[in-house]
Design brief:
mainly alpha; 3 domains; 87% helix; 342 residues
Length: 342
């Protein structure tokens, strides 16, 4: 007999007890009413007493029966609910055990298959797994791994048409990736070129040749650097000659220092006389400024100009003379820089 039928039967019995209790209660009340009526009509005292006692007993019995029924009904429901929950857990455990049994049987069946049977049985899944792995390698730009997987798919499954399509997909993705990388690197290279950062250009070119040496734009980088250097050298030469013609000594010296890294020994030889004249004018200019500051007792500026003569023209006679006077000049300059005290 199942749980639902037992619960229903217990509820029916309890309801019958409840009805019986109600009947007993009503009967007891009826007897009490009869006893009270007999007492008011001067009936026999013994009959009245016995009727009264019987009514009280019957009414109390009915109340107890009713109370017991009200107590038993929720207990029956609670027990039925608890039992139902136990049954539910039992069914869950039995279902899990059945699932485990089926899995174990599947494992047992798969282990009993021969290698050839397994290859046939899992052929579709293996091919799908390879396709998924190839797509992942393409997304990660790991093209060598993707090519290897395509070759493996072709070897194992013999699908040359699909392998050819996948190789075309990888080729297209790889080409697009290389173009993006080359474009970004060339943009940076162009920035370095515009700043005349030749060491930076050299490093960037070497890195690009190592990674994308087969790209036409990358192969032309050495020529671009050489052309840019030559063009910049011509611009510097033009500016230098203009400064020399304008007798702009400071600008001429500055440009000569920049030109020094571009001119070959043969090219420098052709401009050596002009360069000597520029440096001579620069030295005369500094000497005149030095003498003027000394005459004006402007010791601080005199020391500064004197140090410049020593640094830029260390082997000249003027530099030697200034070097001998520098301790005195520095001492006087330090004296002047100390504020007077009251």
């Amino acid at each position: 007999m199942n749980l639902d039928r037992l619960a229903k039967k217990a509820k029916r019995i309890t309801m019958l007890g409840l009805i019986l209790g109600l009947v007993e209660l009503l009967g007891g009340l009826l007897l009490l009413a009869t006893a009270l009526t007999a007492a008011t009509s001067s009936g026999s005292a013994s009959n009245v007493a016995s009727t009264l006692i019987a009514g009280v007993v019957l009414a109390c019995t009915g109340l107890l029966t009713i109370s017991a029924s009200f107590v038993l009904l929720p207990l029956i429901d609670l027990r039925a609910l608890s039992k139902a929950e136990e049954n539910w857990h039992y069914e869950q455990l039995r279902g899990a055990a059945e699932s485990q049994r089926q899995i174990l049987e599947a494992i047992r069946d798969s282990t009993t298959l021969s290698d050839q049977a397994k290859q046939i049985a899992y052929r579709h899944k293996d091919r799908e797994a390879l396709r998924h792995a190839i797509r992942e390698d393409i997304e990660k730009n790991d093209y060598e791994a993707a090519y290897w997987l395509v070759a493996e798919m072709e070897r194992r499954f013999g699908n040359r048409a699909e392998a050819s399509q996948l190789r075309e997909l990888i080729d297209g993705s790889r080409k697009g990736f290389i173009e993006r990388e080359v474009r970004e690197s060339l943009d940076h290279f162009d920035q370095l070129l515009r700043r005349f950062d030749w060491s930076g250009c050299q490093r960037e070119m070497e890195q690009l040749l190592k990674l994308f040496g087969g790209h036409a734009d990358v192969q032309s980088l050495p020529q671009r650097i050489a052309q840019a250097k030559e063009s910049h050298k011509r611009e510097l030469l033009k500016e230098w000659m203009d400064a020399v013609q304008k007798d702009d000594v400071n600008r001429s010296v500055e440009l000569l220092k920049q030109l020094d890294q571009y001119l070959t020994p043969g090219e420098a030889e052709s401009y050596i006389e002009i360069a000597r004249d520029v440096f001579k004018k620069k030295l005369n200019q500094l000497s005149a400024q030095f003498s003027l500051h000394v005459t004006d007792k402007n010791w601080t500026d005199a020391s500064r100009i004197g140090q410049q003569i020593i640094d830029e023209f260390p082997n000249t006679l003027i530099a030697k003379q200034v070097r001998e006077r520098m301790p005195i000049l520095l001492e006087k300059a330090s004296t002047v820089s100390i504020p007077a005290t009251n």
